[in-house]
TrEMBL record:
Residues 52-204 form the HhH-GPD domain. PANTHER family: DNA-3-METHYLADENINE GLYCOSYLASE (PTHR43003). Gene3D superfamilies: 1.10.1670.40, Hypothetical protein, domain 2 (1.10.340.30). InterPro entries: Alkylbase_DNA_Glycosylase/TA, DNA_glycosylase, HhH-GPD_domain. Keywords: DNA damage, DNA repair. It is an enzyme of class 3 (hydrolase). SMART domains: ENDO3c (SM00478). Pfam families: HhH-GPD. Its EC number is 3.2.2.21. This is DNA-3-methyladenine glycosylase II. It catalyses: Hydrolysis of alkylated DNA, releasing 3-methyladenine, 3-methylguanine, 7-methylguanine and 7-methyladenine.
Length: 209
């Protein structure tokens, strides 16, 4: 994902609409402004990067990705399957992530996973197709929808940073779980992707992290 800290002007119309719907968003948006530009390539490369990012810090994910790229040059199913256990371990991939990466590569090469069809599917169909791959849960599916396919109304409700940001934004006593995150963000339809992007931004800039 891009690290450029350029404000994403594409989000302004959606965040202004959200501000008219939710006074908490209006207050926080006035204070913290637009989130930075952020994107993710679609396809196999993007999914491998998302698997790497699961349950590790941004800094750790970046380091693992760098070491992996040193070994394979380019992230393709064929190159991932050429890499042995020691090579994956040297890159920093845990044993489960080694299995997930290989399984994803095998599913793409066998045709079980058809990534080129995803842009033409609706959000739930994309989730159903991706979640059949071992190691890809709903969080990864929603991140792929949001950043790779640029869908406008996605809330990755299991994301801990988003949950902490929502707790702070709404003055809640406890961090909301996924079900409550979906409920709290229902008002934000059809702009939940912009809302999620803003929550990450808020998490980093409101003294929460």
């Amino acid at each position: 994902m891009s690290d450029r800290k350029i404000p994403d002007e594409n989000l302004r119309p959606a965040l202004e609409a959200l501000s008219s719907l939710d006074p908490d968003i209006a207050r926080a948006f006035a204070e913290h402004g637009l989130p930075p530009e952020r994107s993710q390539e679609a396809g196999f490369d993007g999914l491998i990067r998302m698997i790497i990012s699961q349950q590790v810090s941004v800094q750790s994910a970046r380091a693992i990705l760098g070491r992996l790229l040193e070994q394979v040059g380019v992230i393709t199913p064929q190159e991932i399957l050429k890499l042995d256990d020691e090579g994956m371990k040297a890159a920093g991939l845990s044993r489960p992530k080694q299995r997930y990466a290989r399984g994803l590569a095998e599913d793409v090469l066998s045709g079980k996973l058809q990534l080129d069809l995803l842009p033409g599917m609706d959000d739930e169909a994309v989730i159903d197709h991706l979640i059949a791959v071992k190691g890809i849960g709903r969080w990864t599916c929603e991140i792929y929808l949001l950043f790779a396919l640029r869908r406008p109304d996605v809330m990755p409700a299991a994301d801990l940073a988003l949950q902490e940001a929502m707790k702070h934004l709404k003055g809640l006593r406890q961090r909301p779980g996924p079900a409550e995150m979906y409920q709290l963000s229902e008002l934000w339809r059809p702009y939940r992707s912009a809302g999620a992007r803003f929550l990450w931004h808020y998490y980093r800039h409101a003294g929460i992290a």
